[in-house]
Amino acid sequence: MMLKTKVLVVGGGPAGSTAARILAENGIEVILLERNLSFQKPCGGGTSSSTFDELGISKTLIKKEVKTIMVVSPQGERLEIDLRGGSLNIIERGEFDRALRNSAVEKGVRLIEGDFCRILNDKKYTIEAHVGGADIEIISEYIIAADGVNSKVRTSLGIKPSRAFFTISERIKGVEADLCEFWFGSSHAPHFYSWVFPAEDGISAGTGSFEPEKIKPLFERFREKRGLIPEGQKRLYRMPLWKGDLYTHGKVVFAGDSAGQVMPLSYEGIYYAMKAGEFAAKAIIEEKVENYKKMWKERFQRRFTLMDRLKNYFLKDDVSAEKLVALHKRPEVQAASLLLWIRKDKGREGLKDYIRIFGKFLS
N or C: which end of the chain has fewer CB within 10 A? Predict the structure, then answer.
């Protein structure tokens, strides 16, 4: 069996579904190939209110609206920060991703559940996919690779996998939480943080590590420190580290986790994946794939670079993490952080404020 389309989008998560929908809205023929329509990515499910406002996503998908976050230093100092003028919104990833795909289908996207196998021809792209127990071929002028941290499109093109770290998370029912909690400390989250987020039916708790063999003991320490009683099944997942070195390869555009587009320090990915999908679609509509990199770098490069440097400083040890929490006691630091993290400030002022405040730690 052979199919033809203008654009093949591989991966039906936030990046791929957003790109597919925008392309279809502009009259472009799209096939969206998703490996597993029932997959639910392990994820705390927190994304800023800007995700919904800026990208036109229905707020009916929000399960909990969080107006306050708490950061906890390695020595146990707790600081609550009011998210003035914004919020962190908790979604259920399975439902959220399905809604994005359904929205794309409503605009005319052809959705196929199947596994991308390889690129057979990279002139006018011919790819092989495994669909319903059979192998098919899809011919496409453009490919959007939105197939996650383990991107098979990357592998098929001979591009090395992105560097990644590991997270472990658990859903615990019957526990109420109104805050999103971020816990720092090398005893349970070296070079990262542990978290507790509200969920529809309890909480999501987890931690991260660069060493997969240590992640389970680290999570046990955090659970004990936070006073959580184990309940559900723990899930491990690889999360990409941003490097900013992969945008396009010919007429293949990489978006979301396949391109490592996860914000350093906060490790937020949903918003940036959807923006990448938007930029990828616009570049293809313009038939200038090189514009994708320009759009991404103009909007996000400086802040990703800054946050990467701040991550390397503040998460290198417990003494530095203590400084990070202490700095956020200052109202001007909170205001600058909210502008950048929650409101996704498009201008330069928020970034300038952040550089002014944190510049001395970057020298």
Answer: C
pLDDT tens digits, residue range 184-236? 999 999 999 999 999 888 899 999 999 999 999 999 999 999 999 877 789 99
Domain that holds residue 228: 46-89+163-240
**pTM > 0.85: yes or no:** yes
Same domain, 158 and 190: no
> How high is the mean pLDDT of the chain?
93
pLDDT-wise least confident of 14-18, 24-28, 141-145, 334-338: 334-338
Write the secondary structure of the chain as one string of H (helix), E (strand) and C (coil): CEEEEEEEEECCCHHHHHHHHHHHHCCCCEEEEECCCCCCCCCCCEEEHHHHHHHCCCHHHCCEEECEEEEECCCCCEEEEECCCCCEEECCHHHHHHHHHHHHHHCCCEEEECEEEEEEECCCEEEEEEECCEEEEEEEEEEEECCCCCCHHHHHCCCCCCCEEEEEEEEEECCCCCCEEEEEECCCEEEEEEEEEEECCEEEEEEEECCHHHHHHHHHHHHHHHCCCCCCCEEEEEEECCCCCCCEECCEEECHHHHCCCCCCCCCCHHHHHHHHHHHHHHHHCCCCHHHHHHHHHHHHHHHHHHHHHHHHHCCCHHHHHHHHHHCCCHHHHHHHHHHHHCCCCCCHHHHHHHHHHHHHCC
pLDDT given at position 78: 97
Residue ending a domain, among 279, 302, 325, is: 302
